[in-house]
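Discussion board: Methods & Data

I've been asked by a reviewer to show the raw model output for two of the constructs in my manuscript, not just the figures. I'm not sure how much to include, so I'm pasting the format here to get opinions. Each protein appears as its amino acid sequence followed by a line of C-alpha cells. Is this the kind of thing reviewers expect to see in a supplement, or should I convert it first? Here is construct A:
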Amino acid sequence: MSTTTTTTTRTEEASPTRSARRWLALGILALAQFLVVLDASIVNITLPSLGSQLAMDTATLAWVITAYVLPFGGFLLLGGRLADRYGHRRLFLLGTVGFVAASAVAGLSSSSGMLLGARAFQGASAALLAPAALALVTQLFPSTSDRTKALGIWGAVAGIGSAAGVLLGGVLTAAIGWQAVFFVNLPIGVIVIAAVPALITRDPATTHSRLDYAGAATVTGALVAAVGALSAVGQVGAAHPLTLGLVAAALVLGLAFVLIERRTAEPLVPLGVFRNRNLSVGNIVVLLVGAAMVALFYALSVFMQAVLGYDALTAGLSQLPLAGALVVIAGLAPNVVGLLGARRTLVGSLLILAGGLVWLAAAPSDAVFALHLLGPSLLIGVGLGGAFVTATQLSVDGVEGGEAGLAGGLMNTSQQIGGALGLAVLASVAASRTSALEAGGTSTAASLTGGFSWLFLGAALIALAAAGVGSLSRRHSATV
C-alpha cells in the first residue's frame, strides 16, 4: 500500500460521518425510520383478515404485535451500542437489510409460526436500524441551526408513522390484501439500501473498545421482560402469574444491570449520561408522549369503527387532518424553538395536546366528524408535532459522536416502553369503565364511548405530566 493511500484511508477513518448532500441523506434515513414506526401500527387494521386466512385465534393474533415489539424494545440499547462500536452506517445497513428480508418472509407467510418468526426478526432488525439512523442524523448536522431543522423533521416522522399506519393499513388491506402491509416495505427498503452508501461516508468503527456483555445481557433481558409484562396485562390481566413473573424478572434484571454498569470499566450505558438534564428530560417526555399517542391511535381507530360504524378505509382517512396538522407543525417547530426556546415550545405543545384530548373525550356515541372530531384532531396534531420535535432534540442534546448510537437507543427505547405502558394501562381503564357501564344497563355504544372517554382523559393527564417534566429542561442548550 502506498503512502498516499495509507494517508487517505486514515483521514477517512478519522473523519466523522458526512455527506455532500446531507438533506437528501436525511430524507433517506427518515424513510427508514418511517418504516420502523409504521410497522408497529400498520398491522392493526389487517389483523381480522390475516387471522382468517392463517387460522389464528384472538390470543394468537395479539402476538403478531407483541412478536415485533418485544425484540424491538428489548434490543434497542444493545443496538445503539453496537452501532457506536462497529460503525453507525454499517449497523444501519445491516438492520435495514434484515428488516426488508423479514418483511418479505412475513408477506409470504403461510402459517402463524412463519409469520410470528418473521415479525420477531423485523423487530430485532429495527433495533439495529433505529438508533444507528438517529446517530447518523446527529453526525450529519453538527451545527446548531441545521441540526435543529433536521431533528425537527426526524421528530415528526415518529408521529406521522403512527398516524399513517392506520390509513395505509386500511387502504392496502382493502385494495390488495393483508400481505401488502408487509410487501410495502420492500421497495422503500431497497431504495434506502441503495442510496445510503452513495450519500453517507463510512464512519469509523471503534473495535478497540470492549463490549459490556454482562450489561448487554441484563438490560436486554430486563427490557424484554418489561415489554412482555406490559403486553401480558392486556392479554391475560395484571394479576396473572405470567405478568407477575415478567415484572419480577424485569426488576431483578434491571437492578443487576445498574450494579454491573457501576462496576464495569467500559459500561454499555454510562450512568453519567443521565446527568445531562436535557437528555433525561427529553427521554422522559418521549416516554410519556409515546404512552399517550399509542393509546390514542388505538382507541380512536376502534371508536370510529366499533361505535361510529366507519369502515377501515374511512377510519384511516378520518385521521388525515391530525396527520396533516402534525406535519405542518413539525416543519414550523424549529422556527418556534428559535423564537421561544425549547422549554416553552415543549410545554406549550403538551398543553395543547392535553386540551385536544380533553375535547375528544367529550365526543358522544353518535359523534359527527366535522362537529365533534375534527377540532380535537387538529389540536392533537399540533400538540404532537411540537412535542415530538422538541423532545427529540432534547434527548440528543450535548451528545458526542461516540455516544450518538446510545442516545438514539435510549430515545427509541423510551418511546417503545412508553407506548406499551400507555396502551396496557389506558386500555385496561377503558375496559373497566365500559364493563361498569354495561353492568348498569347502558347500551353497548354508549358504554364503549364512556370507556374511550376515560382513556382520552387518561392520555390528557399523561400529557400534563409530560408538560411538568418538560418544564424542568434547561433554559439554554447546545442543540436547541
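Construct B, same format:
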Amino acid sequence: MITLQEKKMQFNSKLTISNTGGNLSTDSGLILVKEFMESLNFSELSRRFLKIEDDRLYHIHNNLSLMKQLIYQNIAGYSTDSSANLLQQDPIFKEILDKSRLASQSSLSRFWDRISEENISQLQDLNQAMIDKVRLARNVTEMIFDLDSTHSDTYGKQERTDYNAHYQTNGYHPLVAFDGLTGDFLKAELRSGSVYTSTGVGAFMKPLFEHYNQVVPVSNILVRGDSGFATPEVYDLCEAYDSFFVILLKANRNLSKLAESFIQIDDNYPWHKKEIIYSSTFYQAKSWSQKRRVCIKSTREADELLFRHEYIITNYSENTSAETVFQIYCKRGTMENFIKEAKNGFYFDKTDSPLFLENHARMMISLLAYNIVNFMRTLCFTPGTTHMQVSTIRLKLFKVAGKLVRTGRRLLLKFSSHHVHQDLFYQVLGRIQQLSW
C-alpha cells in the first residue's frame, strides 16, 4: 500500500501540496521531439539498422521501444535508468511511446545486457543514416571534421578503466568527431583511459572519409585537430582522400629555429607594443614521408623581449595566408562547446555500468539524443533561437505542464494558459510539420 504524501506550506497553512494531480505531465513538450522523430522516420531507420539478438521467450517491451524510451528520457533530462520507475504511468511518455506503461528500470538494465559489439556499429550506422537525411534537407556540400578526445570518469573497478596522465584521474578516454559547421555529432568511440589521444584515429576516420567520398559526396572536407592528432597517420589519410587539414604542432628545437629566423629586429624596434608575426615555411620531420607546409604565429607581448611561437601543419597552398590558416584553426574552439553540451546536457560521459561494452552503448544513446535535438534546433527553430543549449530548450519547450484528456473521438493535450513560451512552441511545431525530406 502506498501512502500519499501531503505537505502544508508554512507561508500559508491553508495550502497543502501532494502528487495527486492525476493525468498530468511535466514533459508535455516532448511531443515536439516525437513529431520530429516521426518526420525523420526514426522508427523505420531503427528497424533497418539495429538488430539486437534476443532470446527472451516472452516480453512486453521490444528492444527498439526500449531504445526509444532511453532516448526520450535522455532528452527530457532524466540521466538515470531508475527514473523509468516513476515515469511508468506518465501520460505523455506513454503516448509518445504508444504503450500502456513504460519499461521499468530492471527492463532497461536487461536491455543493456543484450547489447553486442555488432550493435555498437549498428548504432553508428543509424546515426550516420540520420545525418545523411538531415544533410540533404540542409543542402550543404562542405564539412569540417573536428577531432578531439575527452574524458569520462569511472568509479570503482569498472572494466577497462585506467589512469590517464593528462587528466590525472581514472576513467575512459573517448575519441569524438563533430561537424564544425553544423554541430552534428559524427562519431564516437569509447576507449580505455590509458590510450594516447591519437590511438586508433586512422581506423576511426577512414570510414567517415569513405562514406562522404562515395555514398554522400561532399565538395570539400577539412580536418581540424589539436597537437594530439599531429601524426603522419592523419596527414597521409587526408592527402589520400584529397582533404584539407589544419592541425596544431607541438614545439620542438627545429621548429623554434625556423620561427626565430623570421624575426627581424633593428635599432628602432617598438618594444612597447604587442606584436604578432605570421609566417610559413616547408618542413619535414623524420617520421614524415614528405615536406609539408607549417604556418607559424609568433607573439610578443608589450615590453617583453621574447616571442612565443605556435605552429600549425596544413596542406592549404601558399595562396591561403598563414594568418587565415590560424583563423581557421581557432574556430575549432566551438567544438569544446559541443563536447560540453554532449556531456552536461545529454550525459555523454556517464558510466553507470560495470562493463565496458554497456558503457559504450550508453554513450551511443547519448550521441543519438544529442543529434536529434541538434537536428531539430538547426532545422526547425526560429532565427535567434538556433543556438540555444539543451538546458534552455528543456526549460522553454520540453518541461511544459500538460493534461491529456481522452474523449470518444480524440485526444486533447491541454497546456497551461500561462505558458510563457507558447508562441515559440507553436512556431517550432509548425516548422517541423513543414519539413519535406
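Answer (T.O., handling editor elsewhere):
This is acceptable in a supplement if you add a one-line summary per construct. For B, something like: The radius of gyration is 26 Å.
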